[in-house]
Specification:
Blueprint: E1 72-73, E2 76-77, E3 100-104, H1 111-120, E4 126-130, H2 131-135, H3 151-173, E5 177-182, H4 193-200, E6 205-209, H5 213-221, H6 231-241, E7 251-252, H7 259-275
Parallel strand pairs: 3-5, 3-6, 4-5, 6-7
Antiparallel strand pairs: 1-2
Helix pairs in contact: 1-7, 3-4, 5-6
């Protein structure tokens, strides 16, 4: 008959004969075997009886825990059951923080006026970068959108946007905030917001300025030169801008607001956006 070789198995639990779980036999260290001899209290073939564990307090043995020890994870006591509150981040003042802001809106929304006022009244150096101004750097050969939007005007628009992005990064690298304004359409996310994000950086904060149609028509009528559009074009652009509702971006309706009030609401929108950046 063959017998299994190895450490003895733990004995089955019987009522009144020791704990049912956590039984740990002493390490079995086979020693030299002398046939015909056995230790007192054992008989050949019987499993060795493990010695009793040392009592708590014995040198090298940690003291036993108290009968009602607090619930712990590792060595860090858990709270007594109250919810753990996260610290509230301090309120960020956009007037004293280096920012990159993109002010979006249709023609006649007042983007340029609000952006200039906001940049003029900050307590840190701030630059205003207008996409229309940069587009008009091209004199001979300027692709005027009033003559129709085509591949030539689209190419100049993309070139102006990249130039604005380069300028914004240079300002930011030197600790100067910047605010850019552009008529970005929500139905062209890759060209619009995606392009600005690529050129300026992921920290760009977009805010939409969207007054009513009657307001933008009235303001557009006061314009001169190539920045004045037809009423049909203004209405078309304004209709496309309505897609920003529900986008998650902050929207300011400045139909009945003056420029200083709109700039103050812009600060409030930026404060919220810094604390909880919109997903775009």
């Amino acid at each position: 008959m063959q017998h299994a070789v190895g450490s003895p198995l733990p004995p089955p639990h019987q009522p009144g004969h020791g704990p049912a779980a956590g039984w740990a036999p002493a390490a079995h260290h086979p020693g030299p075997h002398h046939p015909g001899t056995h230790h007192p209290g054992t008989h050949p073939g019987a499993a060795p009886v493990p010695p009793p564990p040392p009592a708590p307090g014995h040198p090298g043995v940690p003291p036993a825990p108290p009968p009602h020890a607090p619930d712990t994870t590792g060595h860090v006591p858990l709270p007594p059951g109250d919810p753990v509150t996260m610290p509230i981040p301090p309120v960020v003042d956009p007037n004293t923080t280096t920012l990159a802001v993109l002010l979006i809106g249709p023609a006649g929304a007042g983007k340029t006026s609000v952006a200039k006022y906001w940049a003029d009244h900050r307590r840190v150096p701030t630059a205003h970068i207008s996409l229309d101004d940069v587009r008009e750097w091209v004199r001979s050969g300027f692709a005027d959108p009033q003559s129709g939007w085509n591949d030539h005007s689209e190419a100049q628009y993309r070139l102006a946007r990249r130039t604005c992005g380069f300028a914004a990064r240079n300002f930011l690298a030197n600790g100067i905030s910047c605010i850019l304004d552009d008529a970005v359409f929500p139905d062209r996310p890759v060209v619009g917001l995606g392009g600005w994000k690529r050129h300026v950086g992921p920290g760009l904060l977009p805010v939409v300025l969207l007054p009513g149609l009657d307001i933008v028509l009235e303001r557009n009528a006061e314009r001169t030169g190539n920045r004045r559009l037809t009423d049909e074009e203004v209405a078309r652009i304004h209709g496309r801008m309505a897609g920003w509702y529900g986008s998650g971006l902050p929207i300011i309706d400045n139909s009945q607001l003056d420029i200083p009030t709109t700039a103050r609401l812009l600060d409030e929108a930026l404060t919220r956006a810094i604390a909880s950046p919109p997903q775009w």
